[in-house]
């Protein structure tokens, strides 16, 4: 084992010994309040499926229809390759519903946080976050 591999292995061992190593869970079922992990049914406390729509039959069908018409996702982020008209239509509908001037949809919480922080915070502001966040 070379020097870098040894250093990385030691670091990983330290992370495991500190109880900070995250083992990936393999989910064997649809995402809902209960999921199957390691062939056992467990309560899913850590999902972003707050509204329980991840396996709603109408949304699944709408997704299938959308894939047939539009393909599977964009080839890059919208500000590089462009925004499809269907995304703009959804943003307009959300704006009308919320009675706002405009809406921007982000593809991930990470991107949304970046957009939020850049918009609302300045050089004099600070974000304090837990080390494990």
TrEMBL record:
Its cofactor is pyridoxal 5'-phosphate. The lineage of its organism: unclassified sequences, metagenomes, ecological metagenomes. It holds the Pfam family Aminotran_1_2. Residues 41-132 form the Aminotransferase class I/classII large domain. The keyword S-adenosyl-L-methionine does not apply. Keywords: Acyltransferase, Transferase. The keyword Transferase applies. GO terms for cellular component: cytosol. InterPro entries: Aminotransferase_I/II_large, AON_synthase_class-II, PyrdxlP-dep_Trfase, PyrdxlP-dep_Trfase_major, PyrdxlP-dep_Trfase_small. Belongs to the class-II pyridoxal-phosphate-dependent aminotransferase family. This is Aminotransferase class I/classII large domain-containing protein. GO terms for molecular function: glycine C-acetyltransferase activity; pyridoxal phosphate binding. SUPFAM superfamilies: PLP-dependent transferases.
């Amino acid at each position: 084992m070379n020097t870098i591999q040894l250093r990385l292995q030691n670091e990983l061992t330290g992370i495991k010994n500190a109880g900070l190593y995250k083992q990936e869970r393999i989910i064997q079922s649809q995402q809902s309040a209960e999921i199957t992990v390691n062939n056992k049914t467990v309560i899913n406390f850590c999902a972003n499926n707050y509204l329980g729509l991840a396996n709603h039959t109408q949304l699944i069908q709408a997704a299938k229809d959308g894939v047939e018409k539009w393909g599977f996702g964009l080839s890059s982020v919208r500000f590089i390759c462009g925004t499809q008209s269907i995304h703009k239509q959804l943003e307009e509908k959300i704006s009308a519903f919320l009675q706002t001037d405009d809406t921007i949809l982000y593809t991930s919480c990470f991107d949304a946080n970046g957009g939020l922080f850049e918009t609302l915070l300045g050089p004099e502001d600070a974000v304090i976050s837990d080390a494990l966040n």
